[in-house]
Write a structure and sequence with these properties.
This protein is an alpha+beta fold. It has 2 domains: 44 residues; 33 residues, no CATH class. Helices cover 28% and strands 30% of the residues. The strands form 3 sheets. It has a 3-stranded antiparallel β-sheet with strand order 4-1-5, with helices on one face. The chain has a 3-stranded antiparallel β-sheet with strand order 6-7-8, covered by helices on one side. A two-stranded antiparallel sheet has the order 2-3. The longest helix is centred in the last third of the chain and has 15 residues.
Amino acid sequence: MSKKVIKRFQDKETKEVYFRGDLYENDNSDRVAFLVEKGYLASADVQEGAEFPKHTGGGWYELSNGEKVKGKKEASATEKDLQKSGE
């Protein structure tokens, strides 16, 4: 499974450093759940070709890091900032 990194961390198993915006892949669901719980990974799975922000209904939008924002303009601006900081 693939998750988007939302907070920099070093994987204790591989010693690889992941930065915000990176993609973390691991088949161990317990490990992934732990990293989501601790705030290192977004809770939503990364989908190939997914476009963000995604409208989730009621004026709410989901960003690529798993956050939810109300309002299309706000979501678009925040997503643009996320993409810039991830580059």
